[in-house]
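User: Teach me something about this protein's shape.
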Amino acid sequence: MAQEHFTTSLRTFNHLTLFDRGKIAALHTLGKSMQVIADAVGCHKSTISRELKRGTVTQMKSGRTFFRAYYPDTGQLQYEKNRTECGAKFKVDGSIDFIQFAENKILEDNWSPDAVCGFVKLHALFEGASVCTKTLYNYIDTGILRVKNIDLPMKLRLNTKKKRSRKNKRILGRSIEERPEAVDLREEFGHWEIDTVIGKKSLDEVLLTLTERKTRKEIIVRIDDKTSEAVTTAMKSLQKQSGSLFSSVFKTITSDNGSEFAELTVSLEKEKTEVYFTHPYTSSEHRFSLNSELF
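Assistant: First, the predicted structure itself:
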């Protein structure tokens, strides 16, 4: 099945070819700058700088006079040599004795690769011609050793996919489970749900909504953005407008776990208003609205 969405980043460069190196040589002979050469080849000027160093050699003219010049063939040969030396290097040739020791201990004495490496390190064996546990496991996986994964019962028993339980790291205040049952009955005025709404055309259009559970009346306040500071400013404005009646009008306020409500409890700590928060990722526990009143 074709995969349309992937996270592997695409390479943004190409290796120089022999044709590219010929172009570099011609332009360099004409005295062009590295930036001009880079633009002509289609690469960064640092690539040209490294290529000129890689392919420049010292030559001797008649009369025993020496000069330095860049040659495309030399650059290509050096490039190909460097490519053959790329990648991780196996140290098997220098660790034959250790490899044989590890094979015997694992196959005959049922040692684990970690036990082998730990024993060798503890007793300073093989004078540095050993490898670490991870490398030894890599050798087993690639088939360099006579040992197979089937010979490592502990490895076969290990579950590589650990079961993870999502922990609710964001705890903004009291849980909705602590909210009085009278709030759920919707028979008493003064219990509100708070939320934010972002405009479809612009992220700058943010509304703070408060919906009363019994009457379904809604207060809508336009705020600057979807931040805790903006919500705090709006709540202070409501407190100022309501005066001493604020705690009677707003007996409880229930919110979701959005970051914009991080300071809601703190902003109302001087009031008798109780603030509750829904369970993480279940903001639908408190969303509804019918009638609205625009402040």
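Now, about its shape. Residues 174-294 form a domain with the Nucleotidyltransferase; domain 5 fold (CATH 3.30.420.10). The beta strands are 56-61, 65-70, 174-175, 191-198, 206-212, 218-223, 252-255, 274-277, 293-294. If you'd like, I can walk through any region in more detail.
User: That's plenty for now, thanks!
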